[in-house]
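Protocol step 4 of 6: structure prediction from sequence.
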Amino acid sequence: QLVESGGGLAQAGGSLRLSCRASGLTFRSYAMGWFRHAPGREREFVGVISSNGGLAYYLESVRGRFTISRDNAKNMVFLQMDRLKPEDTALYFCAAALSGNWPLMRYDYWGQGTQVTVSS
């Protein structure tokens, strides 16, 4: 099970930190991805972090603004979002992948999402 938290309302230029807590899986074995889904748009890959946290890969439009990190001791992954833009408004959710061809992972588990709204 993956449960996200930390979403909310932010001003453009502001920051939010999303968290995702995993349970029922061997967390340290999974790469963890973040995705977002805005109304009227396709689900969009945001970024992914490797199982040991040594590698990360981001959507070009968030690179340099968003940072993914993880704490394997706490079974948690984080998405730090800085310099937010109105176009970052979406439902954000995390996903866990045991396999794939980095960074194109095959995701086995998905969370329900947490809403991020950025006002201009």
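Step 5 (inspection) to follow. The first strand starts at residue 2 and ends at 5.
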